[in-house]
Amino acid sequence: MSKFRFSVGPWNVHEGEDAFGPGIRKPISFEDKVKKFKELGMDAVQFHDDDAVPEMNNLNEAQIKKRAQEVKGFLDSNNLEAEFVAPRLWMDPHTSDGGFTSNSKEDREFAIWRGQRSVDIARELGCDRIVLWLAREGTLCQESKDPVWGTQKLVEGINSILGYDPTIRVLIEPKPNEPIDRSFCPTIGHVMALSNLTSDPNRVGGLIESAHCILAGLDPAIEMGFALANKKLWGVHLNDQNGARYDQDKSFAAENLRQAFNQVMVLKRHGYGSNGEFIGLDVKTMRTQKLEVSYRHIENSMAMVKLLEKKVDSFDLAKRDKFIAARDYEALEFYTLSHLLGE
User: In angstroms, rounded to a whole number, what is the distance separating the alpha carbons of residues 333 and 339?
Assistant: First the structure.
């Protein structure tokens, strides 16, 4: 039985819209999604700020908190937690040039406002995690922003959240590109360094998404191991990616079974989850799927995590150590592959 706790976000069940075409399925209500998540065995729901409080820009702080309280009641009635709240800074007209790193002072102040409102929502939902996917924090035109200035503005933005609530934690989710092509914080190593520049590094950690590592030409398990060694892996989004294309959010292990195996191995062997962390699934419904099977990718991804947990548990460590002692890595590699194939 898996010891991991699982989470998923409402955006992971969508109408099939992408950069190249409109939606093709009927929308499913937030309430119906949450009920189905519980039925599938999820333990928590991931939130953008406006998932919990739609049209929040038109509300005052008291109204935002009241709406969030209503969502908390709905979660409680379904015996689900909120894992985190992420300010959706990349979808607003104010943040077309970035949020914390916009060249507009007014827009930077808006980003800080959204960040602090996300803290308010998180507190009403009963969680202490803010996730920053720094989607537009970089540039499409390199000469438009000085990278030193950009890094400093990121730190200022994070400090504004840390200073607003003395117990909130910030999880930075790095990505090397898309929607911008030059990110100021592209990898988990950058996250670790950036955290040390903030006012309280102990409250700034990382969230690693498998596909984002692959887009950076890096191995997800190695990146996870680096963050674990720094005691700063506070969240993961497991999925898969076919090379350095657009961010695909494929079902976990759909493209590279061995790479997925090693992700589960490093998480399981180093106690991920023992401090309340979740296995987040950031996987998108294929455009080809019919409405009635639009949750299958979530079911498949969770099933693959559990199947690979069993493979980790049955991996013969004595045999591995024998191969390592002999430096017979060809034998170790063959054993790993045959083990995954059930031989």
Answer: 10
Residue 29 sits in a domain of what CATH number?
Answer: 3.20.20.150
Cβ contact 178:209 at 8 Å: no
Q: Which amino acid is at 206?
A: G
Distances (CA, A) of 287 to 20, 102, 152, 210: 11, 33, 40, 21
Residues with Cβ within 8 Å of 53's Cβ and at least 6 positions away in sequence, in order, are 59, 64, 67, 68, 71, 117, 121
* Separation between Cα atoms, residue 324 and residue 318, nearest integer Å: 10
| Sequence-ordered list of residues with C-beta below 8 angstroms from that of 281, at least 6 positions apart, any chain | 6, 7, 8, 12, 237, 238, 239, 252, 298, 301, 302
> Judging by beta carbons within 10 Å of its beta carbon (0-12, 13-18, 19+), is residue 141 exposed, middle or buried?
exposed
Q: pTM of the prediction?
A: 0.97
Query: Hunting for tokens 């061995």 — which residue is that?
Result: 258
Domain membership flag for residue 42: yes
Q: Cβ atoms within 10 A of the Cβ of 255, count?
A: 18
pLDDT tens, residue by residue, 150-163: 999 999 999 999 99
Examine residue 161 and state whether it is found in any structural domain, yes or no: yes
Neighbouring-strand partners of residue 238: 281
Residue 151 lies in a domain: yes
User: Could you tell me which residues come within 8 angstroms of residue 121 by beta carbon, excluding any fewer than 6 positions away?
Assistant: 47, 49, 52, 53, 64, 65, 68, 85
pLDDT tens-digit series, residues 312-343: 999 999 999 999 999 999 999 999 999 999 98
Count of structural domains, the chain: 1
Q: Which domain holds residue 287?
A: 6-340
Amino acid at 154: L
Give bridge partners of residue 227 from the DSSP assignment.
none
Considering the domain boundaries, does residue 1 fall inside one?
no
Q: Taking a C-beta distance cutoff of 8 angstroms, is the pair 290, 246 a contact?
A: no
